[in-house]
Amino acid sequence: MNIRKVTAALAIIAMVVTGISITVYMVFGDHSPQPAPPRAAPPPSVPLPFEFSIGVDVTAHDCDPAGTCVYVYTINPKYIGLHPLPETPFTVEYKVEGGHEPQQGKFVVHEGTAEIMKDVSVHGPPDARLQAAATRVVG
Prior knowledge:
alpha+beta, 2 domains, single chain, 4-stranded antiparallel beta sheet
């Protein structure tokens, strides 16, 4: 009978000690997330056309009574890709739509800067909404 009492007492003491140990760990333990190992940056590469967003800023327009307008615009390209751009120059070809005919254009990117043509004109209907999209990247 004494062995049962001693065994039961030891089991109760073990449960209490375990409960206290878990409580102390939960209250005082380090629960901060471990930092993720650093990832290597992707290597520079020539981007794809969808990695460019090209805005069209209409700087002037003139409409004649017959209903044809001449719009003067400048493109505003932005690189939205996730990898670094290459150091060597590359060319982005694009198409501007919204005028009477789609208009092709291109600009060169070198060291993160785009060399663009300013004040380009296109004929279109009144209230035309000019939009540009990259179609090809060469380089």
